[in-house]
Amino acid sequence: MNNKLQIDTLYEYKRKKPWICYLLWLLLGVIGAQHFYIQGSGSGYAWCMVIFLVLSLVTAVFTPVWFVCLFYGLFTIRRDVRLKNLEIKINLEKEYGE
Is the backbone of residue 97 left (phi > 0), alpha (psi -120 to 50) or beta? Predict the structure, then answer.
């Protein structure tokens, strides 16, 4: 029972909260701040590179591509948070032997 309590406590501490992702998307979604929060720096840097490449293509295609990228993030936040939290839970159970 002690391991279960320890795992649950650590999970509550480490899990990602969807409302924080939505707030980051709303305030800093253009640079992919929600990706830094959910998946760490690798995904965040990749998102920044995509945005940089899109911004460098200042053409008629720019606006639709930017909006698609931005709103794609909005609709995938809940799934990404759920998957990350599941990953956190599995790793904690492996580490603490549940």
Answer: left
* 9-14-19-20 Cα dihedral, nearest 10 degrees: 140
pTM of structure: 0.70
Nearest-10 Cα torsion for 71, 72, 78, 79: 170
For residue 36, give the nearest of 9, 16, 19 by alpha carbon: 16
Q: Round to whole Å and give the CA distance between 98 and 95.
A: 8
Kindly write down the DSSP assignment for every residue of 6-52, as one continuous string: HHHHHHHHHPPPHHHHHHHHHHHGGGTHHHHHHH-HHHHHHHHHHHH
Q: What is the pLDDT of residues 12-45, one digit of tens each?
A: 888 999 999 889 888 877 777 787 888 776 666 6
